[in-house]
Amino acid sequence: MSIEQSTAAEVRLPRPPGVIRRALAAHPLAVDVFIVVWYFIGCGLALGIDMVGMLSASTAYGAPYYLHGAWWLLALVKALIIALALLYRRRFPLAGLIVVTLLLLWEYSAQALPNSVALLFMIYAVPVYRSVAAGWVGYGVAVAGSILSYFLTGGAGEVSAETAVPGGVFLADGNGFRATEFIALTVMTAIWYLAILMLGINLGNRRRYVQAIIDRAHQLARERDQLAQLAVAEERSRIAREMHDIVAHSLSVMIALSEGAVRAAQAAPDAAADAMSRSAETGRTALAEMRRLLGALTDQGEQAELVPQPGVQDLPELVRGFRDAGVDARLEISGEASGDRGQDLAVYRVVQEGLTNVLRYAGTGAQAEVRVERLPDRTVVEVRDFGAVPGSSTPVSGVGSGRGIAGLRERARVFGGEISAGPTHMVGGGWLLRAVLPVSAAARERVAGTWNEEEKR
Fold it and tell me: What is the C-alpha separation between 306 and 135, in angstroms, rounded?
């Protein structure tokens, strides 16, 4: 089995159990039609029983009164309505249950048997396709309908052709209502309906539970894919920041050295050659860093070349490179190292971006101060320049991508820090890039509270 196949097997989403149940769930209309067809078959058999009873009636009064007239037309209308209730029981189970209960109130003939079975289907359908609360409501409606039907059909009394009427409760012969028989029938009916209701609640809860598990699995799969996309986007952003830092810094230094070499080519050939040599070395270093960065992204099974990420200890070499490019940069580092390599890299990138902007916009000959203050709870980085030197050129002006400060803010956000950049109001003017990076999660709240106070100083 390949890696792709094993991965696909591991992330396979769950599905409802049971082959037959899945097949029935996949074809609900076929199941509903099947139930309606068998209901019509039951109605046809009941109609035949009623007709046989009517033809074989031997009483002096003929067939029972409820078989007089167009009783078969009424039975057909009832059967069609109940069939529709069965067909749409998934969408309107409680409404269908109420309709079937009402149609059973004045049911005297053999049609009561298939209609009662249809009522059981509706009692079962309410908790399955709606909720447990709706199931209990439907149960109450069915039991109340059974009790009311007992009275409307004359109870257990003898039905006579002269005195029996559809709504008759008290019959002429005095046998209309029997308390013991009423209680027994009511209890038996309630227990029978309760058994159907419990079956529906059990299956309905199980179905909802399984569906909730499946929905949760699909939601987790979607969240997994979204997190993967976010991770890819974040990694692309990180790579873009690293590429910007490497390319922007190296190109700025190379352009400054090359322009200086051009101006000194005739007056000081040795100095020009040295500048071009340093420019070439800077280019080779940048190319090596880009190869390492891109090599980590390849999927060829080769081990990428690993080197330590630059940190605070590499700042003197970084500042020395900018001095060679023509920036009068001074470095001041105070405090003890935090031991966080990720934060050291962020400090290095802040200084690198700040000095690159000094070279790019203030030009060669500009003065810059770099201050790194490592406190117990935070690290403060400041890169300040004093503006362009009058009469000096800005050889790399206009080549910025506009992503440098945005990338620094993303780096600072990882540590809960802050980045500010803009003209400074301190004596001497110029531009100030300032970063505050908390060294722990507890220090982040303190940094947020003291940020404005430090800005005022």
Answer: 66
What is the DSSP code string of 184-231? Answer: HHHHHHHHHHHHHHHHHHHHHHHHHHHHHHHHHHHHHHHHHHHHHHHH
Q: How far is CA 82 from the centre of its chain?
A: 42
CA distances from 129 to 200, 207, 263 (A): 9, 9, 86
Q: Do 388 and 430 meet the contact criterion of CB atoms below 8 Å apart?
A: no
Residue 135, number of CB atoms within 10 A of its CB: 26
The Cα–Cα gap between 296 and 289 comes to: 11
How many angstroms separate the CA atoms of 318 and 339, rounded? 20
The domain spans of the chain are: 14-177, 229-298+315-456
Cα angle 165, 171, 175; round to 5: 135
Q: Which CATH architecture has domain 229-298+315-456?
A: 2-Layer Sandwich (3.30)
- As a whole number of angstroms, the distance between CA 405 and CA 433 comes to 9
| Residue bearing tokens 């003929």 | 62
Reduced to 3 states (helix: H, G, I; strand: E, B; else coil), residue 380 is: strand
Contacts of 27 (CB under 8 A, 6+ apart): none
Query: Do 395 and 255 meet the contact criterion of CB atoms below 8 Å apart?
Result: yes
Q: What is the pLDDT along the chain (457 residues), one digit of tens a residue?
A: 443 444 444 456 666 666 777 777 777 888 889 989 999 898 888 887 877 766 665 443 445 555 555 677 788 888 899 999 999 989 999 999 999 999 888 777 788 888 889 999 999 999 999 889 999 999 999 999 888 887 776 554 444 333 333 333 333 344 445 778 888 888 898 999 999 999 999 988 888 888 888 888 888 888 888 888 777 777 667 766 667 666 666 767 777 777 677 776 777 777 777 777 777 777 777 777 777 666 656 555 455 455 567 888 889 988 888 888 778 899 999 888 777 777 888 888 889 888 888 887 887 788 899 999 988 888 999 999 988 777 665 555 455 556 677 778 877 887 888 888 888 877 777 889 999 988 765 555 555 555 445 444 4
- Cα angle: 165, vertex 168, 171; to 5 degrees: 100
Classify the C-alpha dihedral 49-50-56-57 as positive or negative: positive
Question: What is the pTM (predicted TM-score) of this model?
Answer: 0.49
